[in-house]
Design goal:
The protein is of the alpha+beta class and 261 residues long. 52% of the residues lie in helices and 17% in strands. α3 packs across α6 and α7 runs antiparallel to α9.
Length: 261
Amino acid sequence: MADSSDRVRPIDEKWLKELSSVRTEVSSPGYWTTLEENCAFWSKELSGGRFWSRANEKLDQWRTEYHSQTGSALLTNVTLPEFVPKSHASVQDKLRRLHARDHDKFSKIIAPDGAPVPRLPDLVRTRVACRYIDGVEFLAGKLQELAAEMKMSPSRSRKGSIEGYFAQHVDFKETLLFRFGGQNQTAEITCEVQIASEMATRMWDASHPFYEAARVEEGQPQDWQWKAGDKRFIANELGHMIHLADGLLVQLRNLAEKGKP
């Protein structure tokens, strides 16, 4: 989940100028490094905060329920992982790509008042690895339900891309302090929980440098789909193969459970 800051392009003046026209603070000296520092603070606060603490408290109950349904373990780890911050270079790169791809969405990326924090869903995020693909569906549902009970405005999305990224994301809102220029302002932050199978997570960790490089290279899917020697061909198509393998593994497990005396 580490950011690939050394591969991120320099700031493009066009998107920065447009962002500055809404909030002049983003052009202030030290704004971007201060944003990164705030993300680091937030990741620590959220890791020990009310939602994640409550989720960890309910984890044994969820494990038991999932095991009773499937006969399998839910997670690869004992506890839920901590949240991690997004680097300022990675934030800049995401804003640049959003500006190039969807100008209408980019125009709403920062509020004209309040704390000058970009409205990105993954300024603070974590990734949970499940043993099986149906565990992803199960845990995403449980986290969404818990966030709804706690009035945290959750949203859930099932990701499946042509690049072979398969996961579910549960986003929730939290109000935190943004420390900038000697002042503290409250800011509503969207936090992202990525949930994927163990195999998909391993593949993602191994191929993430290729994915980052491909985003810089850009181009159409056809550029790599017919080039077997392209690193993107290997990484992206492997993602689809692993997703298929995850589904077959669940079917095999279920058949084995049915065949037990």
